[in-house]
Amino acid sequence: MKSKVYFTREITPEAVVKLYHALGVSLPGKVAVKVHSGEKGNQNFLHPEFWKPMVDEVQGTIVECNTAYGDATTGVRDNTDSHRKLLEEHGWTKYFPVDLMDAEGPDVIWPISNGKVLKENHLGKNIVNYDSMLVLAHFKGHPMGGYGGALKQLSIGCASRAGKALIHSAGATDDRFETWQKHASSVVFPEAMADAASSVVAHFQGKIAFINVMKNLSVDCDCCAVAEDPCMKDIGILASLDPVAIDQACIDLVVNSDDPGKEHFMERVNSRNGIHTIEAAADLGYGSREYELIEL
């Protein structure tokens, strides 16, 4: 049976909540809400005010992890002190409880039994404090992964600094400096992301939902301090219980758009072999590329 992906062209905080309700689920217990909090200087990330009604609806806690990059990219989210300061500057702590899951070690290590590349995933240890997860993704391009959506939030997004290093190097090193000298190929890196994401999906065992917002469609990620401005018009919001289907639907909406900027966007996706992340995740069996798009 095809996975259901709900879609609206209305991009408002209220529409996010509407799509969540369309899923027909109620995330139980303590809810981790995974967002991209935005790098210092980035102009495209979705601000906390946009997400507030949705986070309030599930009484969730915003969760993030430190990054593996830092001074080389002028980023400040690679250490706990400066990351917490930026979370405050961007307004996240004004509205929500915020948990930097890997602020204190040791990491939690989850096995990946059938991974294509990785045998284990290293995550911020506080992830085990949550009963369910809501993944809120700003869909956009990415300088390394081709695109960023639900699968990237599950993989790189939930990984600790050591976990991010392992994903980027396809298991060669957990050192966040060494990983850039041992970075995996554009075939293996997407597979490592798919592997890591699988462990998070397996952990929450159906108590997980996904919302992708196709707004501010830049070829660059929200982790870029200086990102390229959007190259396409906004498209809409999608929601699903299937991370593979929702990312595939976003790609298809770009490809099928009549926006001339789609060529530039898809050049970024394809030049980094971004769709292989979706292919690998589907092959691992925790989602499907076949979906029914239900427009509300």
From TrEMBL:
<dbReference type="Pfam" id="PF04015">
    <property type="entry name" value="DUF362"/>
</dbReference>
<dbReference type="InterPro" id="IPR007160">
    <property type="entry name" value="DUF362"/>
</dbReference>
<feature type="domain" description="DUF362">
    <location>
        <begin position="31"/>
        <end position="252"/>
    </location>
</feature>
<protein>
    <submittedName>
        <fullName>DUF362 domain-containing protein</fullName>
    </submittedName>
</protein>
